[in-house]
Write a structure and sequence with these properties.
binds pyridoxal-5'-phosphate; globular; alpha/beta; 391 residues; 7-stranded mixed beta sheet; 5-stranded mixed beta sheet; Cystathionine gamma-lyase; 2 domains; 36% helix; Aspartate Aminotransferase, domain 2; PyrdxlP-dep_Trfase_small; single chain; Aspartate Aminotransferase, domain 1; disordered N terminus
Length: 391
């Protein structure tokens, strides 16, 4: 009964309604509006194979299904898959490949993603080329007959470069490659890679989708049934699934994604502008600035510029950067991003420590760089905090 009512027109909803209703239906047992946390590993069967759609929670769990449907809906895909972490979602994508295959990847990407590619998968015979992708044409020279996948992170972590997804997608289609986009920083509120031609969207849902710094969850969304089947096979065979409690919390986070992102963008803009005018600040990296090298692409493919900002102080000193992050009081010095609370990080020693210094400095991740995840507090309190910390 519920399913039919709800199938009606949910695909046609606008984004701010999809976050709340997309792929959702009241629970079949009692009509609960939020899906119960089905904290079970297994399901009773009347005869072998005689079950109600669920047999073992690694393969599927109703709370996770509710989250996976929501993920598919907000990214304009057809199939969503929820994993135990962002990295395990990436792990599943790379397991689509075989020894001998090659991947062309963004060079300025989350340190853990780099570590997974280099230190886990290269030893299984998969080769990764890390390159700057702001000029999409430059990617083509790294493609050969062994290339199977292009991995794009945009905006990049932590340098806030923006990569033209449409242009990379044209290249991927020309060479019959898969294109995967890590959409963690932008979220589907700002950018929907599948609409721009990507085959796979990936999230560290730990960040903006969950939104409250209380879960570690990963997500993949695709349109194509065959690709979805391959990924479901890997998800079940490798087993890095998202548990029912984390599924529930992430689903709850998604319901307010649009209102949180609106405020993240407003606060991000105010703080980027404040830092840009500060006499002690050398450089601010935020794609909303007109003189950001990829501003036009950002304006074209994103609905706003987000709340992630990186900056360096004049003199580019490591000690100054450390002093600032230690003095912050409303911003918390911590790994991660995308929660309601503002966080500050020192990428060289925290999120990007697993990238060798010479490699990370090539893409701008110098010892003096500070990264801010601007939260949704009162922006005047955030500015006052930066004022006292920068001095
Ligand atoms: C852009 C990006 N991708 C992937 C990840 C990995 O996600 P997780 O920490 O959920 O495994 C992170 C984590 O910080 C990230 O920032």
């Amino acid at each position: 009964m519920y399913a039919d009512q709800n199938k009606m027109s949910k695909k046609d909803l606008r984004f701010n309604s999809k976050t709340i209703h997309g792929g959702q239906q009241p629970d079949k047992a009692y009509g609960a509006v939020m899906p119960p946390i089905y904290q079970t590993s297994t399901y009773a069967q009347s005869t072998p194979g005689g079950h109600m759609g669920y047999e073992y929670s690694r393969s599927a769990n109703p709370t996770r299904t509710a989250l996976e449907n929501a993920l598919a809906s907000i990214e304009n895909g057809n199939y969503g898959l929820a994993f135990a972490s962002g990295l395990s979602a990436m792990d599943a994508v790379i397991k689509l490949l075989n020894p001998g295959d090659e991947v062309v990847s963004t060079n300025d990407l989350y340190g853990g993603s780099y570590r997974l590619f280099k230190q886990v998968f290269e030893k299984y015979g998969i080769t990764f080329h890390f390159i700057g992708m702001q000029d999409a044409a430059a990617i083509e020279s790294h493609i050969n007959e062994k290339t199977k996948l292009i991995w794009v992170e945009t905006p990049t972590n932590p340098m806030m470069n923006v990569i033209d997804i449409r242009a990379v997608s044209a290249l991927a289609k020309k060479h019959q490659l898969l294109l995967a986009v890590d959409n963690t920083f932008a979220t589907p509120y700002l950018q929907r890679p599948l609409d721009l031609g990507a085959d796979i969207v990936m999230h560290s849902a730990t960040k903006y989708l969950g939104g409250h710094s209380d879960v570690v969850v990963g997500a993949l969304v695709v349109k194509d049934k065959e690709l979805a089947d391959q990924l479901y096979f890997i998800q079940n065979a490798s087993g890095a699934v998202c548990g029912p409690m984390d599924s529930f919390l992430t689903l709850r986070g998604i319901k307010t994604l649009h209102v949180r992102m609106q405020r993240h963008c407003e606060n991000g803009k105010a703080i980027a502008q404040y830092l840009a005018k500060h006499p002690k600040i050398e450089k601010v990296y935020w794609p909303g600035f007109e003189d950001h090298p990829n501003h036009e692409v950002a304006k074209d493919q994103m609905n706003g510029f987000g709340g992630m900002i990186s900056f360096i102080t004049k003199g580019s000193s490591y000690d100054d950067a450390i002093k600032i992050v230690e003095k912050l009081q409303v911003f918390t010095l911590a790994e991660s991003l995308g929660g309601v609370e503002s966080l500050a990080g020192h990428p060289a020693s925290m999120t990007h420590a697993s990238i060798p210094k010479t490699e990370r400095e090539k893409s701008g991740v110098v010892d003096a760089l500070i990264r801010l995840s601007v939260g949704i507090e009162d922006v005047d309190d955030l500015i006052a905090d930066l004022e006292q910390a920068i001095g």
